[in-house]
Specification:
single chain; alpha/beta; four-stranded mixed β-sheet; globular
């Protein structure tokens, strides 16, 4: 359903370092870029993520209540993504752990303050 998500940045190179590291752990790299924008993902793959300086030239700001969720393969990958995020300029928003039956997640912010999480929804979780 979602094709990609784009987040704003005020420092493209700082943000690129963060997303290069996080996306490498998830098995994807840069698939498009120019002087303003970088997109990570795989053509024909799952939803990608983009980082851009705002088109209108104004300062990028964080949307309150906005979050990007990155689906991990297993709990160990959730833990690695969280640690990679913190090691590359991210900040803690909630260490990896069980957030409900079968839902394991770690929450963090990128260097611009955009909120993300790495999560695993285990089989049989969610009641659906």
């Amino acid at each position: 359903m979602i094709g990609y998500v784009t987040l704003g940045t005020n420092d493209r190179e700082r943000g690129a370092k963060f997303y290069d590291a996080v996306c490498a752990e998830m098995g994807v790299g840069r698939m498009m870029e120019d002087d303003q924008f970088i997109a990570w993902g795989a053509p024909g793959g799952g939803a990608g993520i983009g980082l851009t300086t705002p088109f209108d030239g104004q300062t990028a700001t964080v949307g309150n209540g906005v979050m990007v969720a990155l689906e991990a393969r297993d709990r160990a990958q959730v833990d690695r993504i969280y640690q990679i995020a913190l090691a590359n300029g991210g900040s803690d928003e909630g260490a990896p752990g069980e957030r409900g039956p079968g839902f394991y997640a770690g929450y963090f912010r990128d260097p611009d303050g955009n909120k993300l999480n790495a999560f695993l929804m285990e089989p049989g979780a969610g009641g659906g």
